[in-house]
Amino acid sequence: MLPPTLIEYTLSRALSRHPYLRRNLTNAALNFRPPDYSTEFAITRNQPKSTDIKPRDTSKPPNSISADLAQRVRALEKVTDEKDAEFGPLFFSEQDLLSFYENILAHPETAHIENISPPLQIDTEVQHRQDLILTESVEQRLRSSMVQPSKLTLALRQGLGDVHAETSQSGATPVHQRVVNQVQLILNQLDEVGEQGPTPLSLAILSTEEWDAVLRCSLHTRDTETALHMIELMKRNNLDIPENYINDTLQLYVQDANPIGFETALAKLVQGPPTPQQRHLHIKAQLNSTPLHAIPTTALSVLHTYESHPSHGHLPPPQKTYSSVIRALFSTRDPSGGAVAQARAQAWDLFAHMRYVSHPDPDALLYTQMIRACASPYTSPLSSASSASRSSSDPERALDLWTEMTIEKGLQPSRQTWNAIILACAKSGRKMYVHEAFRLSKEMLDSNRDAFGNSMYGPDERTFCALLEAAKRIEAGMGLGRARWIFAEMVRNRERDLNGAGVKVNEEALMHVFHAYAAYRPPFRRGLARIVEGEEEEGKEADPAPLIDAKRTPAPAPTPAPAFTHVPPQTSVEVINEVDILFHRLLLETGIRREDDGGLDSSIFEEIGKFSGVKITTRLINSYLSVHYRHGSIQAAKELFGRVFEEVGERGAEVGVIGSESNTGTGTGVMRDARTYVEALERCAIAKKGKAKSVNGEGERELALVWAEEIMEKFKELEEGERGGHQISPRLIERTHAAFIRVLTLTNNVDRALSHLEYFVQRYPASAIRDSGNIVKLPMRSSRTSLVAGDRPLVRLTTQAEMPDWSVPPLMMWRDLEVLHHRLVASGRERDIAYVKYVCKSYEWALRVRRDETMRAKPRAEVGLGLAGESPEVES
Hints:
Layout: H1 4-17, H2 22-31, H3 38-41, H4 62-87, H5 94-104, H6 108-115, H7 124-147, H8 151-156, H9 165-169, H10 175-196, H11 208-220, H12 224-236, H13 243-255, H14 259-269, H15 276-288, H16 297-307, H17 319-330, H18 338-357, H19 364-374, H20 395-408, H21 415-426, H22 431-446, H23 461-472, H24 480-492, E1 497-498, E2 501-502, H25 507-519, H26 536-539, H27 572-589, H28 618-631, H29 634-648, H30 674-684, H31 700-719, H32 730-746, H33 750-763, H34 767-770, H35 814-827, H36 830-856
Antiparallel strand pairs: 1-2
Helix pairs in contact: 1-2, 7-10, 7-11, 10-11, 10-12, 11-12, 12-13, 13-14, 13-15, 14-15, 15-16, 15-17, 17-18, 17-19, 19-20, 19-21, 20-21, 21-22, 21-23, 22-23, 23-24, 23-25, 24-25, 25-28, 27-28, 28-29, 28-30, 30-31, 30-32, 31-32, 32-33, 32-35, 35-36
């Protein structure tokens, strides 16, 4: 017999290892009856304690007791092994664990698709053929009943005549129209019979399936008049009209951008307040009829009218309607820029107004749209010459919306939401938010992984472009290494389908890569290298040869490395070599250049077709040229500027780039825009002293002056409107003239610089800035307090002081004329110094006057902004 303490110890060890044996071993322990030692060791309370030690019983030898104890322990272990065999394996198999975690870690969209079978997609053409067959059978039945009338039909036709015979004989009329005409004739006959006396007959002219087929035939052929007539006949036949019949008919007016026809049909078909879907279609019809360059004031007016309906009370449109209107406001494209800022400000105000009036909790789609809008804010400095003070995005507001959406509201972000918040942080250019963009991208890819390690949000083109935007904005141009790695991942994933999103290299990604190369600062400086005597000539760096040669005789280019290494380029020559290889490969895969054209070796690409889908645009060419402006010589940049557009011109109209330049002598395909000339002139404005890398030994600034004069002549033609009347941004105009004045000043042509300044002042006087006729304030931007949403939001997120005025004419500020002023001071020309000071102060004072007049302006309607009607007198 085992002692009780050993039994308890054994049970505790067994239960700790095998919990499922708890019940069996516990029952065994309860059934165990230990011997009664009470009679042997009983000690009464009053009995005195004996100090004598009781001798040990030596009747049994010690070895026999140990053997008995060991035997009982082995018996207990045997019982445990038998119970283990009964319960099977102790752990899950690998397949069981995989299935278990696969169900737990499954993505929400995948689980939703697997659990709920998708609705059957009906082919519209097949459905139309079936409806057409049924409609033809109905038409034959009705025509036969009219040709061989029954007794009831004869009774109904007394005195009416067979007026439908001509319609049935016509084969040019569509079959659904013939059916509608026949049904109308029957209903007219029934009405005339009803006038003669009470008729207890209720005839079902068509079945429900036949009504549906005829109506769908009308909608498929976009015959709105017949569909509208068909619904009216159904009402005359005392049939219940399903809402989808009415909505499908109204949808045709929306697609045709016919708001007048929509309102007429809505008045005929709907009795009482419109449904939310019908209110959405009504406002959408107004949006479709508004041009892209105009603010959709009519849609906004209809929206606010529904919010305070005079006869039906509060009928706010659904949230998707607000999303559509906000999207239209953000999509306003005014060439002059006057309506863009006001439209974007109105979009933010409408978002705040919606949350106050009708829908306090936006959905994930609207949150995504507003976060994306933070990446392109309406606020911008007056002059774009100072890029350091430019606000490219609003990351603070974007992160606030992101926190509210994901944490406070608990909404699940989509891939588009992640892309929007990453882009908003990346475009800020500030170190803290650029690093936040990379942190968010890492969180996007690492979070929500399934059992196989696949992320729920695979990167797409917008994700890679947002990351490239962040990489190129890293301070001190040190983001090239990261940009090269991101672009390599994008190229590698082009043929891979990540969660239904095929990643392809596009024009925007290549543009960001070129910008990263342009902002890069190579660590190696030629002036810091130690030149050994006798090797000076060998150690000189050769000027990188131009990529494209119009005469097909390119100079020997530096031999490129066998592949792009993980180490960024260490010199400016290596930077240009890598960029030329990329651009050369782009021309090859887009079919612009042939393999036997010569030039750089592009065999380092293991696969072809990576850049075949890239569209070559003007901004892509400009970004490629910016690398040569930054790292190459001015002579090479000048030659490349004159050839790269000519080479791309072989594609001509296939490129489809916006531009107006047409030079039959050069055959330019991709047109040079205003920014092309501006960036070239700004490169000339930073020319350094000393000899340029050219064969004639001219100075770099002398070459810059010759090139700047050529560029300025072409820009003046574009400025005068001789290239198709393409409107140029005022900020680009002032940047161009400021750069040309700086070039003239640095080349000691101070008199010419003053003459050009006088030309600029005469062409763009300060009085044009003070002109109040250019100041436009819309009625919806009125700041007067209102408790009813008449024509403007009740709650605003923007004020008039925060809205930029993008329609300010070109001007000159002190930073544009500072170099000229210093040269005049050094020469002691006091009269010219006073003139430069007068010019700067006159433009500055004109800006102040314009600001004051803008703040005091009263709202008024402008035809140029797409507004109509007289505006009420509203106090500012």
